[in-house]
Every structure is written in C-alpha cells, then in structure tokens.
Design brief:
- The chain is built from 22 helices and 17 strands.
- 37% of the residues are buried.
Length: 738
C-alpha cells in the first residue's frame, strides 16, 4: 500500500538512472513514514512531509550534511543547547529558525536583515493604504448612489420644468456634485481607523495575498505572516525542495502549522465570494481567491506568476476555458529577491500583480547596473550605463525602474515608485502597479537620455519626448501666455545641442550617450515621511507603534532605516542623478571642498541642493554645469590647488624611455576649467537653514567585518550545482592554490 501511494518524478534519462532514482525515492518514503533515520542516510534521500508533493531525490554531498526536515526520533548528535549538530539558531523579528552551518545549501545572508525589516515596514504601510482605498471606493459608491437619488427627487419635485438645462449649467452642476461627494467622503474618513480595518481584513475576502517567488528558508515569508497586518494568503515558493523542507520546519518550529493552507488540488479555488447575499453580482467583490493560510510549494516562480493573471474582481462568468481550468487570481504583493538580477521574473510579475498592487524588487547585479559590464546591463535591462560615473548608485536604480516601466507599459500598466534605495551591495525598489492605458501614453515623458562629457563630470539628462500640455498638468504650472494654447502633441526630445552645448562647454570634450533611464520621481515622499514618523514613534515605545499599526514588533535595523529614510526625504525629487564632489575636485587637482561650503555656495546662488542617501559625497542640484564649476573655480581662487605631477611614461603615444613629446598629448583639463571666467556670484557663507537638519544616523557603517554578498546556494535539490569540496577533503585540483 505504501509503494502504491508513492509518486515518482522520473526525468528523461537512462533506464538505469530511472531505477536508481526510483529506489531512492521509495526508500525515502518508507524512511520518513517509519521514522528510521539510518535508512535515510544510507539512501541519501529525503521526502517532503506532505503527501501531495512530488518526491524528490537529493543525494548528500558528504556524511556531515543533514536533512532540513529531521525525524523526531533521530539519533544525530545535538549541541548542549538542543540544536542539531552543524546547525545554528537564528532569531529575526518574530521568527526563529535553525540554519545549517556546514554548507551553503539554502541561502541565508544576515546582510539582508535591513532589506527584510524595510520590506515588513513598507508592506505593512501598503496594507493600510490598500484598506483605505477599498473603503473609499465602497464609500464613494454608497454616497454617489444616495446623492443621485436625492438629486433626481429634487428635480422631479421642481415646479418649473419648462426650461431646459444648458450645457454650461449641467457641467457646473456635475462639478459641484463631485465636489460635494469628495467633501462627504473626506469627512467620513476622519472617523475610520484604517489600521484596525487592515488588521480585520485578514479574516475576510478583503485580506491580502503575497507571493514570495524565491523564498529559500522562508524566513521573509514567515515574518510577513506574523508582522504584516491584513495578510490572508502567503505563498512560499522555491525551486529547491530542500528550501521548502527547511521552510516547513520553520513553520512548525514557530507554532504556525495550524496556519498551513489546504494543499489538495493546486488549483482548488475558494469560491465563497462569488455572489452577494441577495445573489446579485457585486463588482467590488473578489472571486476564486486562494485558500487562506500559508502555502508551501516547490515550483518555478515564473510559471506560477504566468498562471496567476486573472484579476480578482473579474466574475467567473467572464472566464474563458483556459482561465477556468488552469489560471489563478492575481497577487496583491509580489516579492522578488533573487541572487543576481530580477530581470527574468519581471514580465510574469507585472502581469500577475493586481491593479494597485505592490512589487518589491531586489537586484544584486550591481556590476552590470553600475557599468562594470555595460553589455550585460543592456542585454538584461535594455539600457546602457556610463562606466566609471560618479552617479552610478542612482543610475542603477533609474535603469531598473526604466526597465520595469517598459514591461508594465506593454500590458497597459504604469508604475508609481514608492521607495527606491541602494543598500549595501544591492538596490531595492517598491513600486505600485496600476492599470492606466492613458498613463502609458505619457511614459516617454518620464524617460530620458544621458549625455556624459568624456573629459569631466559634466552631464545632461534630456527627455525622450516632450508634451507642453501634459507637462504643465504634471508640474502644476499654468500657461504663461494665455493667448497661446499649450500644445498637446508628443514631440521628440532634444539633445545638448539645443542647449547650446554641442560639446562640453567646460572642456570642449564630446559626449558619450547612456540610458535610457527613468527620470520620474524615485519615491513617494508622503509615504516616506509617514514611515519616518512611525519609526520615531516606535523607538519611543520599545520598537512598537503605539497606534497599533506597522511596525508591530521591534525592527533590529530601526536606527539604520530611520537614517536611510531621512536621507531619502531630503533628496530633490525632480532632479535625476548627482555630481560626485570628490570627483569634481579631483578633476582640477584640488583638495575636496567641504560639502557644507559647496552646498552653501549653490544655495546662495539661488539653486536647490541636497545629498543622496547612498553616496556621502553626492551633490544633487538643479544648478547647471557651469554654475557647479563656478563654485569650484571660486574655491580654487581662494585655495589654489597644487600643480599636477606629470609622468611622461604614462602619456599616450610616448615611448617610456624617450624624452620626446607625446604624439597625441592630452589637454590640461584642470587648466581649461580653472582659466574660465567666473560668471556666478560665489558666496560660501553657511545659510541659517542648514542648522535645522533632522537628527539621524546617515550613511551607517557596516555592522561587522566581511559585510557583503555570499556565494550562491548550492541547492539541496540539485547537489551538483555549486558543489563544494567536502569537509576534510584536501585533494588539490590542477588550478587549486596551496
């Protein structure tokens, strides 16, 4: 009976391999169900504990490796604190897990604690905004219906019905109707606790669903389940069965086994929300939702997302045959945190996210995004970075957002960045995705080309296209000439030539082209300021938000996150990229100008200036290039730089052993810049406004040594991938160093 109940996955290999794999899987099945750990070690396999999962064979690399799921009667040695041998205890947030020390079988990196803390905070805040949006939608519908009935009744009771309403009167009446509607809804909002509303939604069909595509140990997913309000369904997915084994063990260890979703048919849908009590279709209800709880699954993340593209508000009567049989509803939140680039997952994710959903994206391939491998960056993201640029940290974010927005536009969707930050060795962005076909037409206005001087740090960012009417609405500006109507035509953008700079005005050097990049805002400052306020309140209340909202548990990286968000809130939102102050000063061989003095000169000249959250030497300003260099010239006039030492052997075209002049001598860039006339009034007096800076830990240092990326997980499901040498094996290969 046990043999008949076992299900085998036999890949297309040689017959003998089929028999060997089948034998291991059968032995594994008997091992787990009978609890005989010695047979498991001999067979070298382990079975997922739920009978509806496929059996998977995973031979161990060496005898010291243990299974992520350990039978209760195992005889393996344990440490004095009760941990299995070779394991360490990790506590993060509200979750405790045991993690194998001996090898990198399932990926875990303590560097990402800041990432996970920030994600808990941002998703928790999104849950409250989502609850508010849903309440406002229902309230507006209710108020609109009542006001419309009252208006019709008033019209029918009117004495004089002979005069017909003019078009202008009707337009004015509708405008007043919408104004009264908005006022009543806003007044009603004041008495609603959206934090409590979000928390209560977890037990209803209004609760959120989150998909973690690459869950590894499941630590992030379990933290979401316990620390994010309003979470109804948490899907924990990974391609490696060993990772899901460990995730299941963590579920049990944290007392969450009762929250596991029913794992019968993978496409068993919850149809409890198909109709209202009266039996009428409600367009605001959600249909065919996933079963509530935590679902652990071994699967291809891209396949799962492509199979989850039905809008939850679409009634089942409108499904086609494929949707009815195979498709699932979209997710409210999708978290992509791969080892490397998220590019392969973005197309599926942007189709499987609900209208207004939140995407959390991590990319660790900074070598590509930062310009070290521009050809790789172009292949992945469709944009070419500028190598060795001073603004590479922000450029990486803008290339990523450009790529996300392009993919979203294919499906009639737009993105709204909520928070985009660079942390440690990676970048992390939180974007809301909206169905907005009209907004897709304006996408070209938020993209730009980058022109970088080849001889100095001067650069220009020009839009891909322009539209006078749309730009005026977006910027909130009015037409300066009332006699001339603003054009609503999309026109091609212009390069630096239209600015009178066919070549760099400072050095005469030509430009190299980079991009395209995202030129819109990187953050929603209202959300950022709300997050700062929450962290400050929680720090005064032992790390917990006193109002009951996020964070509901102390965040380990509270001070670091607070400093990061404060720096983000101070950035200029409408100025793409920045100047690197050390690079500017190095160009003219000057000592680095104090940042406060440099910023003061720009502010006193009438321009705005800010820092950048990732680079302490960054100067983000709306001042043109010649003003930036005028400040440098003014400083060098008061503090003359030392003459640059010239090494003849390094001159291009010159024989190192010759005293002859170089065949192609380089122009003295420092002299070209410093000899120009200063056209801006330079004043280094520190303004009083600089003293009102918020206190925060900006640019926090690494908490420990060797703080950086780890090697990729070897994967218990595929022992040959990333396979390392067994402990104690001293055999040297041909290229091994002694």
């Amino acid at each position: 009976e046990r043999e008949q109940s076992a299900r085998f996955v036999l890949p297309d290999r040689q017959p003998m391999a089929h028999l060997q794999r089948g034998y291991r899987q059968l032995t594994t099945s008997l091992t787990y169900r009978l609890g005989v750990s010695s047979i498991a070690r001999a067979a070298g396999s382990v079975l997922l504990p739920k009978r509806n999962f496929f059996l998977t064979s995973r031979p161990f690399a060496n005898q010291s490796t243990t299974s992520a799921i350990m039978p209760s009667n195992t005889n393996d040695a344990a440490t004095s604190n009760g941990l299995p041998k070779g394991y360490e205890k990790i506590t993060e947030g509200t979750i405790t897990m045991h993690y194998p020390q001996s090898e990198n079988s399932v990926f875990y990196n303590p560097v990402q604690v800041q990432n996970r803390d920030l994600s808990v905070l941002m998703i928790g805040m999104y849950a409250e905004r989502r609850a508010e949006r849903m309440w406002v939608t229902r309230k507006r519908k209710e108020v609109r219906k009542r006001m419309s009935q009252e208006q019709r009744s008033a019209t029918a009771a009117a004495v004089d019905t002979s005069s017909k309403e003019s078009k202008v009167e009707r337009k004015a009446r509708m405008a007043q109707f919408e104004k009264d509607l908005d006022a009543e809804v806003e007044a009603a909002k004041a008495s609603v606790n959206f934090t409590k509303l979000a928390q209560e939604s977890a037990t209803t069909n209004d609760g959120m669903s989150i998909f973690e595509a690459l869950a590894a140990s499941g630590l992030r997913s379990l933290r979401y389940w316990k620390e994010v309000p309003g979470l109804r369904t948490m899907v924990v997915n990974d391609l490696d069965p060993g990772a899901i084994d460990l995730a299941r063990e963590n579920v049990i260890r944290n007392g969450l086994e009762g929250a596991l979703a029913n794992e019968g048919d993978e496409h068993n849908k919850d149809d409890t929300a198909t109709t209202t009590e009266e039996g009428n279709i409600d367009p605001l209800k959600k249909y065919n939702l996933r079963p509530p709880g935590i679902k652990l699954q071994v699967g291809d993340a891209t396949h799962e997302m492509y199979m989850s593209r039905i809008p939850p508000t679409l009634h089942p009567s409108q499904y086609n045959t494929t949707q009815s049989k195979y498709q699932m509803t979209q997710y409210d939140v999708i978290d992509l945190d791969p080892y490397g680039s998220a590019a392969p997952f973005l197309d599926g994710a942007l189709q499987s996210i609900v209208d207004g959903g939140l995407m959390c994206i991590t990319c660790t391939d900074m070598a590509a995004l930062g310009g070290s491998h521009p050809e790789t960056c172009y292949g992945r993201y469709g944009a070419f970075p500028v190598q060795r640029s001073g603004y590479l940290q922000e450029l990486a974010l803008r290339i990523l957002l450009y790529h996300v927005s392009i993919i979203a536009g294919r499906y009639g969707r737009t993105i709204r960045p909520v928070l985009s930050v660079g942390m440690a060795f990676y970048c992390r962005v939180f974007v809301e995705v909206w169905d907005d076909k009209a907004g897709v037409n304006n996408l070209s206005l938020s993209h730009g080309h980058l022109f970088q001087s080849i001889k100095c740090s001067s650069f220009h960012v020009t839009p891909v296209a322009t539209n006078e009417s749309v730009s005026a609405k977006q910027n909130g500006t009015t037409n300066k000439n009332p006699n001339k109507k603003l054009s609503n035509v999309y026109r091609n953008g212009r390069g630096p030539c239209d600015l009178g700079e066919a070549v760099c005005s400072e050095t005469g050097g030509s430009y190299k082209l980079g991009g395209p990049i995202w030129t819109g805002p990187l953050h929603d400052l209202d959300v950022v300021n709300d997050a700062i306020a929450r962290l400050e309140k929680s720090e005064e209340n032992n790390g917990i938000n006193p109002t009951g909202g996020t964070p509901v548990h102390p965040l380990k990286m509270t001070k670091t996150l607070h400093g990061l968000l404060v720096s983000v809130s101070e950035e200029l939102p409408d100025v793409p990229l920045y100047h690197s102050l050390p690079a500017i000063c190095s160009t003219v061989n000057s000592s680095t100008i104090p940042r406060k003095s440099f910023n003061a000169a720009l502010v006193n000249a009438g321009y705005r200036v800010s820092a950048y959250h990732k680079d302490p030497g960054a100067v983000k300003t709306d001042a043109p290039n010649h003003v930036v260099w005028d400040v440098v010239r003014g400083w060098c006039k008061e503090n003359p730089p030392q003459p640059r030492k010239v090494n003849k052997r390094h001159r291009k075209g010159e024989d190192p052993g010759s005293n002859a002049p170089p065949k192609h001598p380089h122009s003295d860039v420092a002299s070209l810049i410093l000899n120009k006339e200063i056209k801006t009034k330079i004043d280094f007096t520190i303004p009083e406004s600089f003293a009102s800076r918020k206190k925060a830990v900006r640019y926090a240092l690494n908490p420990e040594a060797n703080w950086g990326p780890k090697a990729a997980a070897s994967g218990l499901g595929n022992p040959n991938k990333g396979k390392r040498k067994a402990d104690g094996d001293t055999t040297e290969g041909p290229a091994q160093k002694k």
